[in-house]
Design goal:
elongated
Length: about 110
């Protein structure tokens, strides 16, 4: 009787452990890797979440207002509310963001 209980318990543990394991990759099957580029032109790694599942979480106090004309001290939030006209790439060269093009006037301003 005890031997049957031990055998049943051992069988339960083995089956439960096998069911909870991760599936092994089948030989010859490879996952199609898709290249994903984020909004600033960076290529995401293969194990990154899809773009619609990514979000930014900040540990800051709430701004007093979202009106940039009223509160200049909440500027760190404004960077997330408004898109910049141009951004810097990895080589510190200007790239267009919200601006489609730009030029320097004759008076160099």
């Amino acid at each position: 009787m005890i031997l049957k209980s031990v055998a049943a318990g051992l069988c339960f543990i083995v089956l439960t452990t096998a069911a909870c394991g991760t599936p092994s990759e089948q030989p010859g099957s490879t996952a199609a890797s898709t290249s994903r580029i984020n909004s600033v032109g960076k290529e995401l790694p293969d194990d990154a979440a899809s773009l619609d599942q990514q979000y930014l979480r900040l540990n800051m106090i709430e701004p007093s207002t979202l009106d940039v004309g009223i509160s200049l001290f909440d500027a760190q939030f404004n960077a997330f509310l408004f898109e910049q006209l141009v951004v810097f790439d990895d080589n510190l060269e200007l790239k267009p963001a919200a601006a489609e093009s730009w030029s320097v006037g004759e008076d160099k301003k």
